[in-house]
Structures are given as structure tokens and as C-alpha cells.
Amino acid sequence: MNRNAMKTAAGYAAGLMFGLGLAISGMTDPARVLGFLDVAGAWDPTLMFVLGGAVVTTFIGYRLVFKRSAPLLGGVFQLPTKQELDGKLLGGAALFGIGWGLSGYCPGPAIASIGGVSLPLAAMLVTMVLGWFAAKRLG
Fold first, then answer.
1. Is residue 17 within 8 Å of residue 89, measured between CB atoms?
2. How many Cβ atoms sit within 10 Å of the Cβ of residue 29?
3. For the chain, what is the radius of gyration of the CA atoms?
4. Which residue has the higher pLDDT, 57 or 1?
């Protein structure tokens, strides 16, 4: 199998594992996310454990990956170089947070939930795509 096919297969496998993890953990249910954000009401700590698991996995994974001189399926590691905070980053983060808080979906769970599309999910997906186009035009 050639390198491009391997990269594509690895991308699909990673996406499948991510989607299954979201579904198994219940993060495709917007009520669970909104319950986590409702700290003054019926708070649901499940998301904190999912995020904690992601942090631990990332911490271990980065240490293992960076012991290598190059990625398995690529020529060089492509790491971000920009380190300063600017208006675009802060504005994008604020819009993401507002959308997440209003809908209970972020992009991963929204795409993983597309099989059971509802009006709130469709609205979130449409505004997400509009946001991508707006970011390209403004960037």
C-alpha cells in the first residue's frame, strides 16, 4: 500500500476511534454537555472525566511521538509556530464557546451525531459551515 493510502486509512481509523469514543462517552448528547455547563443547577461532571482522559492520552501520546525523529507517515512534524494571542484567536474561541453553550455541540460530536439530525444540530452545522466561510473571507 502506498504512503498516501496509508495516510488516508490512518486518518479514517483515527476519526472512527474518535467518533466511537464520543458516542460511548455520551458526548454526542447535547444535554450532557449543557448539564456540565449548568454549574448552578443539575451539574453533570461526565464531560470533566472525558476531557481528563483526553488530556492524559495526549500527554502520553506526545511524549511517545516526539521520541521519533519523524512521523510514521509523513516527512517532518508540522507544529504551529505562532504563540501570541490575538483578536482572531480570542474572537474565534469566544464564538466557539457561545455556540457550544447554546447548542451543546462542538464540531466533533456534531459530525458524529449527524445520523440522528435534529433542528438544533442542523442549525449548529449550518452556522459552523458559515463560520468557516466567514473565517476564510476575513483571514
1. no
2. 18
3. 18
4. 57
Burial 75-102 (b: 16+ CB within 10 A, else e): eeeeeeeeeeeeeeeeeeeeeeeebbee
The tens digit of pLDDT for each residue in 24-37 reads: 888 888 888 889 88
Picking from 95, 94, 101, 92, the residue whose alpha carbon sits closest to that of residue 120 is 101
Query: Cell for 118?
Result: 435534529
Instruction: Kindly report the average pLDDT of the chain as a whole number.
Output: 87
C-alpha cell of residue 107 = 464540531
- For cell 474565534, the residue is 92
Instruction: Output the pLDDT for position 21.
Output: 86
C-alpha cell read off for 47: 464531560
Distance from the Cα of residue 50 to its chain's centroid: 12
